[in-house]
Amino acid sequence: MSESNTPAGAPAGAPAGAPGSGGMPAMTLHPRPESGPPRPWAFPAPERGALPNGLTVLRCHRPGQRVIAVELSLASPLAAEPDGLEGVATIMARGLSEGTDRHTAEEFAAELERCGATLDAAADHPGVRVSLEVPASRLTPALGLLADALRAPAFPEPEIERLVANRLDEIQHELASPPRRAAMALYAQLFPAASRMSRPRQGTEESVARIDAAAVRAFYQAHAGPGTATAVVVGDLTGTDLDGALARTLGTWTGAVRPPEPMAPVTGDDTGRVVIVDRPGSVQTQMLIARLGPDRHHPVWPAQVLGVYCLGGTLTSRLDRVLREEKGYTYGIRAQAHVLRSDARGSGAALLAISGSVATDVTGPAVADLWRVLRTLAEEGLTDQERDVAVQNLVGVAPLRFETASAVADALADQVEQELPDDFQGRLYARLAGTGTAAASEAAVRAFPPDRLVTVLVGDAGQILGPVKEAGIGEVTVLPGT
Amino acid sequence: MGHTATPQEASGRLTVTEHRLANGLRVVLSEDHQTPVAAVCLWYDVGSRHEVPGRTGLAHLFEHLMFQGSYQVPGNGHFEMIQAAGGSPNGTTSFERTNYYETMPAHELELALWLEADRMGTLLTRLDLASLDNQRDVVKNERRQRYDNVPYGTAFERMVALVFPEGHPYHHTPIGSMADLDAASLEDARQFFRTYYAPDNAVLSVVGDIDPEQTLAWIERYFGSIPPYRAKPEPRDGSLPETIGEELRRVIEEAVPSRALMAAYRLPQDGTRAADAADVALTVLGGGESSRLYNRLVRRDRTAVVAGFGMLRLSGAPSLGWLDVKASGEAEIAVIERAVDEELARFAAEGPTPEEMERAQAQLEREWLDRLATVHGRADEFCRYAVQFGDPALALTAVDRVLRVTAEEVRRVAADLLHPRNRGVLVYEPTGEPPEAEAEETGGPAGPPVPDVPADPDIAPGTDAAEVGEGPEEPGRSEGGGESPTGSEVRQAAGPAVDAATAAPEEERQ
Q1: What angle do CA A425, A427, A430 make, to 5 degrees?
Q2: Is B476 in contact with A177 (Cβ distance < 8 A)?
Q3: Cα-based distances in Å from A88 to A219, A342, A418, B76, B469
Q4: Strand ranges (DSSP E) for A298-437?
Q5: Number of Cβ atoms within 10 Å of the Cβ of B228
Q6: For residue A41, which residues of chain B lie inside 8 Å, CB to CB?
């Protein structure tokens, strides 16, 4: 590597001494360094086993990760919620930690915090996920509390009433949040009215208000059992007798439940159209532009990952290059493929979405520019350089992305819920590297055809309706905000 | 190169060494070979407290300009090169400092050092009006997205303006005002760089799978010839009397989804034992779902859906204890406030129980372990302790100091400081009407109350900006994009859009 004390290797267009610039650098310049030899890294392979009560266990030793992550998945899809009781899975999930056969709700929270633990539970389309994080030194008592919550939740009536009331409070906040409001409108547009996916994951005001302790207990009894559940345990397990700890805790959970019905294929109507949700006074317009596409079981997945990244994965992707770095319309626009629900038979789907917010007064031009980016992509495809950078980034960041125990546990639990093999993520990196520009281009173009996108805009209809119509991206409907 | 190595053994296996280049750049190195990654973190000792009247937001706007190209790295090259190398860059600005960081595959560490040195040494050769104007628009949109277009989004800004008096360096927040962002000129930006972006005003930390000797040689090679500034202006004095002496109060009528009660208490400066005691007190009172306020307001009285305390630790001014309560149903603020004051008074009289001490300290310990679980988290903490307290190794013993706090110290700090005559209060009353643009005197409504309160604006949105679910999901979890792979952002709480006060951002929580 050569030293150079003058900027002889100055890059093309270097503005040395140009008027208004700072002139020549005052430091010694060096050429860009070469990479060192790459050091091997592989996505951690979990060890799969089962407890005598049928609970599937995936474990993964991650040296140095002193906070252990436990992800427990219940096979209780939202589609199994009774009609009109949407939100009961959410209230059940939250109710798990509101008292057990050994503790009242307050005592349970106190015991958890005595372990230095956090416990979160949430219901999504594939099922309920309970996430425990705890320092390794207190893993066993924390697993005991998790087991209590699953084995013997009390679901006391007063606590369920409170959870319902609080959930109704939260809905008011969600309606006022532009990204949440946009998602609500999108799901209602995209999915058939009969589909559970058309309604909010955590229920509507109407459906939540109907939920009581009896409904919660019935849902629990039908869907929470060790035989259909999976626990993923990740972290520094040095010196931990995990088998012993599991046997004494989650191993004592009993109860038989039927596996959920096979999922109906996920379908949606992606006829190109625009819905404006009126939010008077908004200084920005929240955009959510989406349709359905292949999930991770589909062979196109790696190509789609690359294509979506090139379109809108980051600040240097196509959308931000124009809308942010050239025009300054936004703080950032992102494209992503988010798996909604999935199974091994291929009935699942991912939401392919472009989202971000733009200043109210440039909403029309921003939408027009966004469509121009999509049309250019369809006409010209991606460049080899874009594809190469996408591969280098997505493969290269893997060790960073999966540095913590919780990131690994989360990815493994996702795979379980989506009926993917345990080595899916591990093999994905080789598949990405083996995907060429043409395949990535085709996948990106198929993911976001300009005339097959449902567009939701949450903003000041009085100001944006005209300009959005002018942009000519589809028929426009205006909905009242609440 | 005249550095002194001062190895120290501290918590766990972690060690840290400190060095200094001849131009004044301080360097902190820490080895950890468990994962082949390396975090580079560069703290410049400049934040919004250094800004002058009429130029609020300049430190943060300038942070954006640092990504707009330097002599050998034109345009978006900084981002492009790091991402193509499999790394992940970002930067944030707070009251007290500006940080830049990239986490890299270990074999690409040298590139990151070369890139940071290029912009520290040569930014002004590329800085031009076109990029200033563009990033001004980007930052104004950042302000709209994170504050002005969000219910309660400007609560933090309003509170800070209330509890730090006019003219105080912390009276305004890092995002700045729209008018001042408009007013920032190219010459302002140039002068800002010349004054603050010098090696003798920075700390560089490198943590992870590194060879310390080789790393130090690279740092000397790339940074060693950058001239020092040698005339760093001190920020204006941020010291204030120990207590406010009265209650400062504002009622805001706005189109928010529910009534809210927020308060900020003046607390001891960071780095003191009293600040650690205050942290424990706030945790017992309002940290998590077994805290006194959560039990009282959410579980028993059922007047709130969110109730908790967070702490904004500041080293150049009093820290703030941040109360956030979102009312449930039609509950009235007067009722909530009476209950809060009863709980605070009882705590001041009785102090924490042994069980409460144990729980609070266990929670604070886990938060520290989380913070130190990633190479980036460690690199950032080393910089923080080096810049603000002169010794990076203090990061490794911070948790021990929190664990040494006694119940009596906790009671005393609460009795002295957590009372109505030492707080600013914001009361939100919903109007049901959309906000009038002209009603926004101090700015917009606030984002997330406590969690985002001490908002450090970032260079770009991460995962959470790409929210596509209406519910509890974590968007961007797939590898398809919108990804922000840095460890500290990997996990985002599943939950509703009501923001819990208990999740103050990590950076400000410690």
Answers
A1: 120
A2: no
A3: 7, 21, 22, 48, 18
A4: 330-341, 349-359
A5: 15
A6: 35-36, 105
What confidence tens digit (pLDDT) does each residue in B67-105 have?
Answer: 999 999 999 999 999 999 999 999 999 999 999 999 999
Q: What pTM does this model have?
A: 0.91
Max intra-chain CA distance, chain B: 67
Query: Please, what sign has the CA dihedral across residues A389, A395, A396, A397?
Result: positive
Nearest residue to A177 via CA among B468, B263, B230 = B468
Query: Residue A325 in contact with residue B134, Cβ under 8 Å?
Result: yes
Find tokens 């209060």 and name the residue.
Answer: B425
What radius of gyration do chain A's Cα atoms show? 25
What does the block give as tokens for A255? 């109860």
Is beta strand B98-105 parallel, antiparallel or unpaired with respect to B15-20?
A: unpaired
Check: CB of residue A420 under 8 Å from CB of residue A281. Answer: no
Q: Which residues of B touch A129 (CB under 8 A)?
A: 494
Mean pLDDT, all residues of chain A:
94
pLDDT confidence bin for A404, thresholds 50/70/90? very high
Across the interface, of A115, A399, A400, the residue whose CB is closest to B362 is A115
ipTM surpassing 0.85, yes or no? yes
Identity of residue B275: A
Q: Which domains does chain B have, with CATH numbers?
A: 8-223 (3.30.830.10), 246-369+390-460+492-505 (3.30.830.10)
Predicted local confidence at residue B87, as pLDDT: 97
For residue B300, give both structure tokens: 């028993």
Give residue for tokens 């996948």. Answer: A443
CB B174 within 8 A of CB B50: no
DSSP per-residue letters across A185-202: HHHHHHS-TTSGGGS-TT
Report the distance separating Cα B179 and Cα B160, nearest Å. 18
CB B399 within 8 A of CB B368: yes
Domains of chain A: 47-252 (3.30.830.10), 273-419+431-479 (3.30.830.10)
Report the alpha-carbon distance of residue A420 to residue A48 in Å, rounded.
13
Bridge pairing between strands A475-479 and A273-278: parallel
> Who's near B251: CB < 8 A, 6+ residues apart?
B427, B429
CB-closest option in A22, A186, A202 to B124: A22
Count, residues in chain A? 482
